[in-house]
Design brief:
The structure holds 2 protein chains of 2 kinds.
Chain A lengths: L2 H50 L4 E10 L2 H4 L7 H6 L2 H13 L3 H10 L4 H12 L7 E7 L2 H10 L11 H13 L2 E5 L2 H4 L12 H32 L4 H13 L4 H15 L7 H25 L3 H9 L4 H29 L3 H5 L4 E2 L14 H9 L5 H31 L4
Antiparallel strand pairs in A: 1-2, 1-3
Helix pairs in contact in A: 1-18, 4-6, 10-13, 10-15, 10-17, 12-13, 13-15, 14-15, 15-18, 17-18
Chain B lengths: L1 H19 L7 E4 L4 H14 L6 E3 L3 H8 L10 E4 L5 H9 L5 E16 L6 E2 L1 H8 L2 E3 L7 E3 L5 H4 L10 E3 L5 H15 L3 H9 L1 H9 L7 E3 L4 H10 L4 E5 H6 L4 E3 L1 E2 L6 H5 L6 E9 L9 H9 L1 H4 L4 H4 L7 H13 L7
Parallel strand pairs in B: 1-2, 1-3, 5-12, 8-9, 8-10
Antiparallel strand pairs in B: 3-13, 4-10, 4-11, 4-13, 6-7
Helix pairs in contact in B: 2-13, 5-7, 7-9, 8-9
Classes of the chains: A mainly alpha, B alpha/beta.
């Protein structure tokens, strides 16, 4: 070993510590950013879950109530109109009036306000299902008003809990809690009801059905169109100026803010073609415009990934271009295309901005049955609830976010699993 | 599989195409986000207690609702529009241009706008003049002359020695909001015209008067907190030094967290708003297209439900949602308007 070699070695050794330190520092930066990201996620999820978990339980009061035929003015059970329109709400109010003996008009009103407006509809539903119940005493879990619900779930037991309930109301509630009649149960209402202005009756079924129908329209339109466009552009189209312009424009479209598609939808689908506002049909059409670029781009990438040897082999054996594409290239590219489609759909699932323009920010109680019934979608429902004055909507907002997140996670997992399962490597 | 999908799509398109023009059997309501909570309650109750489908209520804002409403006659256009202000003459003209000449105006009730603070902070006692001086972009000079200067006030005490020495910080809605319009018109302008030289300006230079009285300061004392009133309530709880502007219904729902400031000696209570003694309150309306009555099923029945005593009355369910009912005399007028479907006379 020569002297100069030694000095180089020494130089290297001397710089080692510095280089190692800089590597460690870089790793620490990386770890810190990952940790920061995770922390944000944990805080966000923690906040949503801590606010939203209580949306899945509901406060009810077990009551024995006499279904007085005279009070309901139902003489024959065959009279459907009378069954529909009987004063069930009055019956419930009357029951509590005789049971709790409120003194004076003010207390009576306070008593009535503790029971949900839906209690009458609960009785109506029972009777319509089984008319022989009229004249009998039934035991039923009556839904309580949102103020009572919030008190029982959050403030009950801690004395400093501020509440909108009065002394008299708290007195009645304490007696019900003691007797064990007031309890919580799983909130099925949240999953089987449409929207409502009474938080205790509001549910996400309408929004979920609307979401499903909208995505169905989006899928049925954007998948075939997207796949066809991708195949044509990749396999058949000549490479010239024109196709280049088309390609650039598709890439640009993918980056256009989504609200623009809403404006486009309003101008074209509603104003020119006369599709009715607030329907899954028009929503699906607009979201199709939005997801198409994503599907085309991912579809082209998937087709590009199929090795040319497969095409050449098929052509060499005498298959036509069309046969080559549909028998060999497409089946191999399909998993990649599906993944792109699912990701595009997941994007569409969480979209509100373009729907704003086409009237899907609407109060819709009835669950939509077909693609031209008025409806909303889940993210819009979340937006509407977050803007409602009743405090009980806060937890329902978070509850609906949890459901939406659940769907998004399922869809993205499906995309990952599909890719893992079906992907081929060459 | 692709073939099946393609045929499916084609089938869907034709099905939808034929149905998109099918007769609408539900009532379509658009308009103000302030009236939305009340309109929706009535719509829901109407849907549950009648054989008609539940009306669809869209929240588009008063102006946006009018635009849709006036875009023509026919089932593609809404039947009813909600408004947190009266219809403008320009909107009546727009309607007339598109063939809508018979419009029925129905007053719903009152809504108070409150200037609220956290329950951890003392209650403010303000006059409209204080509000104007605290929030306007330009104010009369402090020396009492008739000149205008950029708003110099930093704390409430500088405006009125009776007020606490706290920084001026007010959270409120952005200019697109009807609540903001009403607050500016009733609160700000109300204080603005207390200055004689500004009041005189109304006659000589109306646009300058308006810019002066309606201009909110932009130096951070007034914070645009978005259209979400719940957010403003949350921010007030977190920051007891700030005040927030929102509708009475949000105050009512959050009375355990926030309180309304006293304005001109009146606290924003149910009674003070309904008898008109609380100064910052406005009327809410909805407008019905008479040409649609009898064409779209259920409009008359819906109107009947809206003006019924159990909805609009003093103890009605709308009052439970925070709407302030009108006086007996006004109510009678509304009932008369609806029963006879009296249209607004062309102004």
């Amino acid at each position: 070993m020569t002297n100069s070699n030694l000095t180089t070695r020494q130089k290297v050794e001397a710089s080692m510590a510095r280089r190692r330190a800089s590597e460690t520092r870089f790793r620490l930066y990386g770890m810190a950013s990952v940790l920061f990201g995770m922390l944000c996620l944990v805080v966000l999820f923690g906040d949503i879950f801590s606010k939203g978990y209580s949306a899945f339980s509901q406060t009810v009061l077990t009551t024995e109530i006499y279904l007085d035929a005279d009070y309901l003015e139902i003489s024959t059970t065959s009279d459907e109109q009378a069954l529909m329109n009987a004063n069930y709400e009055g019956l419930v109010k009357n029951h509590f009036k005789t049971e709790m003996q409120p003194s004076g008009r003010k207390e009576r009103r306070q008593l009535y306000s503790m029971i949900s407006a839906g209690a009458g509809w609960q009785i109506q539903k029972e009777i319509l299902a089984d008319t022989s119940l009229i004249g009998q005493t039934i035991t039923i879990d009556l839904i309580m008003d949102d103020d009572v619900d919030q008190w029982f779930k959050h403030d009950h037991g801690n004395d400093d809990g501020s509440t909108r309930l009065s002394e008299a109301q708290l007195g009645w509630l304490d007696s019900w809690v003691e007797s064990g009649d007031l309890h919580t149960r799983f909130n099925t209402t949240f999953f089987v009801n449409g929207d409502s202005r009474e938080p205790e009756l509001a549910g996400i079924r309408g929004a979920m059905t609307g979401t499903f129908l909208t995505l169905l329209v989006t899928f049925l339109l954007s998948f075939p169109i997207g796949v066809a466009a991708a195949i044509y552009l990749e396999e058949f189209a000549p490479k010239n100026r024109l196709t280049e312009i088309v390609e650039i424009n598709i890439n640009n479209l993918a980056a256009v803010p989504s609200i623009t598609f809403g404006l486009l939808g309003l101008a074209i689908f509603i104003n020119i073609f006369g599709v009715s506002r607030s329907t899954p049909l028009v929503g699906g059409l607009v979201l199709t415009l939005m997801t198409l670029p994503t599907i085309i781009i991912s579809g082209r990438a998937a087709i590009k990934a199929v090795p040319p040897s497969i095409r050449e082999a098929a052509l060499g054996l005498g298959a036509s271009k069309m046969q080559t594409v549909f028998h060999h290239v497409l089946p191999l590219a399909l998993p990649g295309m599906l993944t792109g489609t699912i990701i595009g759909m997941a994007q569409a699932l969480g979209e509100t901005a373009p729907l704003l323009m086409i009237g899907m920010i609407a109060f819709v109680v009835d669950v939509p049955g077909f693609i031209n019934d008025p409806s909303t979608v889940l993210p819009v429902q979340i937006f509407l609830w977050s803007d409602s004055p009743e405090r009980a909507f806060t937890e329902r907002t978070s509850g609906a976010i949890m459901v939406l997140l659940g769907f998004l996670i399922i869809m993205n997992t499906a995309a990952v699993v599909l890719r893992r399962r079906l992907e081929r490597r060459w | 599989m692709k073939k099946a999908l393609l045929t499916g799509a084609a089938l869907l398109a034709t099905l939808a195409g034929s149905n998109a023009y099918a007769e609408r059997d539900y009532i379509s309501i658009v308009g103000s986000s302030t009236v939305y909570p009340f309109s929706t309650v009535v719509a829901e109750r109407f849907g549950k207690s009648s054989s008609f489908p539940t009306p669809k209520v869209e929240s588009t804002g008063s102006g946006g609702g009018m635009k849709l409403f006036c875009s023509g006659v026919g089932e593609a256009t809404p039947d009813i529009t909600n408004a947190s202000r009266a219809i403008k003459s320009s909107e009546i003209e727009l309607c007339a241009k598109n063939g809508i000449t018979d419009i029925v105006e129905v007053m719903v009730g009152y809504d108070g706008i409150v200037l609220a603070g956290s329950n951890d902070a003392p209650q403010f006692e303000l006059s409209r003049k204080d509000i104007f001086l605290a929030l306007a972009k330009v104010v009369p000079a402090t020396d009492g002359s008739d000149t205008l200067i950029d708003n110099p006030y930093k704390t409430w005490k500088e405006i009125n020695p009776a007020l606490p020495a706290k920084k001026i910080e007010v959270l409120g809605p952005p200019p697109t909001s009807g609540t903001r319009d009403a607050f500016v018109e009733l609160g700000m302008e109300g204080g603005c015209k207390k200055f004689p030289f500004i009041a005189a300006m109304k006659k000589t230079d109306k646009s300058k008067y308006k810019a002066l009285c309606h201009g909110m300061r932009e130096d951070g004392a007034y914070v645009e907190a978005g259209e979400n009133d719940n957010l403003i309530v949350q921010k007030l709880v977190a920051n007891p030094d700030a005040l927030g502007i929102f509708g009475y219904s949000f105050l009512e729902q959050n009375e355990d967290k926030v309180h309304g400031s006293i304005i001109e000696g009146q606290a924003p209570t149910f009674d003070a708003i309904s008898d008109g003694s609380y100064p910052v309150s406005r009327s809410l309306f909805f407008y019905v297209k008479k040409a649609h009555v009898g064409v779209i099923p259920g409009i008359e029945e819906f109107l009947a439900e809206f003006i019924s005593d159990k909805a609009m009355g003093e103890d009605g369910y709308l009052a439970d949602k925070g709407m302030i009912p009108m006086t007996e005399k006004e109510y009678k007028k509304v009932v008369d308007t609806v029963e006879n479907l009296k249209t607004i006379a062309a102004k």
